[in-house]
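U., I forgot to send this yesterday:
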Amino acid sequence: MEAIVLLLNSQPFITLFLVIGIGYAVGRINIGGFSLGIGAVLFVGLAFGAFAPESAPPGLLGLIGLILFLYGIGIQYGKHFFAGLVSSFGIKANLLSAVAVIVGCAVALILGRLMGFSNDFGAGMFAGSLTSTASLQAAIDATSNQDPAVGYAVAYPFGVFGPMLFFYLTFQMFKPKVVAPSPKRLTTGELRVGDRGLGGKTIAQVLEKAPDDLKLLMIKRDGVNMLPDADLVLKDDDLLSVAGYPETIGEVNLADSEDVRSDRRHLDYVRVFVSKEKFVGMKLTELEIPPGVEAEIIHVRRGDIDLISKPDLLIEYGDQLGVLIESGKRESVSLFFGDSVNAESQYSFVSMGLGMALGGLIGLIPIPIPGVGMVKLGLAGGVLIISLILGYFGRLGPFNWNMPPVANVILRNFGLTLFLAGVGISSGAPFIENIAGAGLSLFAAAIIEVAVVVLTIILVGYFILKMSFDDLLGIASGATGNPAILAYGNQLTPTGKPDICYAMIFPGVGTVLKIILVQIMVAMASGGTLPPG
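Result:
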């Protein structure tokens, strides 16, 4: 046994990846429908850290992992975040989570008085139960001692496990109907102009009254397929080929015929990957088809989803464009867009490096809060804020901030895994040391704290505000903060909504508000405001 401990302590690299491998294996264990998923990496790390306390990897490694995760979240959901700030749903979600976290802060203060621990320990317990490393750092800076770190270490494990437990219990109690979205596929249909009374009208006039998610592909006239021209006047014998989602095709009652699409003598269909960086982040209307080639982009395949081609649709790495083109011109379009499947793995590390560096600088800027003093977002908070802004814009001048979906998922998952493993190993020994004696009070307070915040969001949101359960899991994940909680919410309700709501909540309520609240807690203990620096 001593030899194993010596090996683990002397080889943090081996320990780290043992924790990752075993953690993922444990996360797959399903007991009564409950499994920890990626969150198991944290708890395996706690066990290894308690067993071999000197095996913790450098703290910078875990911080890099957290930042990789947050950067990927920001880049992917930047548009959703800013849309949420002005939408009625986003405002409601942020208010709900803010109220829950503020109530949680008040509960932490009350529990400190009832259980006999100081606000310094209480601030750490508050930060740990809501898994906010940025808040912990703010509390340590404000107190100038390590008492908050003790409260954080005791509370943190339940801060991760507790929300997962309450997610599972409420899911089993409420039995919400959660349907994972099926991949959206386009289908095609045809109609004869004379049968719909469209003869004598131009293409532009017909499209004005057509559903938004219906795309006119081509017109067949006198046996010849043609690309649609807005000024073309339709004849009764013309055949129109259109594309749309199945429900739209059914609503307008179109025949599903291959007559037009199977004739490739005049127009051909080709799919090409967008693998040239200069096109990424551009709108479809900004794409210039190669000179001398008549072509029409009819849809965009992104991952498992088919998107109707609309003028303001932004091109992303790895998109496949469905193009109608003159017969014999396939090669020219393929060369023009690049058409390499490697696009899914390409990414501008220049943009990523500059974006993260800028986020780190933003996190160092002191922010004055009246009555509290100066607060900072920290590296993680700064990177998240900048990545959300960059994700919103997508492209700024020569810099393209977009990221291929596959690369984004891999980056986020790897970063999250590093963070959880590192935090688990480094927290194992402090948790064991502090859980006995006074630590039991802090641990009990953490259980109450997590229950108050999570259940306030879920119960008020579900029964009073009538919000969907998967949205509420994302809101609660953003309020409690740890990415493992979000991962479990996605596992329980695989609709994609938890990710979006997490991105809306985590920067403001999940980071900035908590930083402010812990410093208010410390200020209340000292009987005044914090010093300006």
